[in-house]
Amino acid sequence: GESVGLHLPTLSVQEGDNSIINCAYSNSASDYFIWYKQESGKGPQFIIDIRSNMDKRQGQRVTVLLNKTVKHLSLQIAATQPGDSAVYFCAENINSGYSTLTFGKGTMLLVSP
Amino acid sequence: AAGVIQSPRHLIKEKRETATLKCYPIPRHDTVYWYQQGPGQDPQFLISFYEKMQSDKGSIPDRFSAQQFSDYHSELNMSSLELGDSALYFCASSLGQMNTEAFFGQGTRLTVV
Prior knowledge:
The structure holds two protein chains of two kinds. By secondary structure, chain A is mainly beta. In chain A, 0% of the residues lie in helices and 50% in strands. Chain A contains no helices and ten strands. In chain A, β8 (86-93) and β9 form a beta hairpin.
């Protein structure tokens, strides 16, 4: 399944499917991006980051793609599990020289067994 | 591994009262960030400190102030509380302040009645 961020804030998938969560970031000068996972009542949890000199980075079951031309980030989760159910935020470092992060609108991922 | 510790976890205050939230960063982390997250909203950056000095400022109301102490813990002081201040307040910490991963605490849920 695929999300288009603001236009589809909830993504529902079946366990085992691959999930793609999209994010449009705001500042073309941003040079550092992070995907966070937030479970209900908990703080954001780091998933994966990417710097602007890269267009792809892979982690365990997750891949982040960065398209600077259209200011677009995506998070791909392979073999989605029920434990992946959460709200996912992309965040950008919008203030060069500081690690202050500006968060995008979240996408709720719901994984059905 | 030690994480970011926030206290209290829950706080209920009446309008016009004051509140103090505390944040204990991961050991050796020198940078602290404060974020406010309203219901169903993305986290909004308030303020950050690096080596006990304010390093960046976001949408923090004038009624709020914060500081970072010699042991690197930070406190967010909120006065003349309003109903709209009800939110989750997250603290994050990082080592350094240049494009580096920030680790979030579990948050303090403030309810103003």
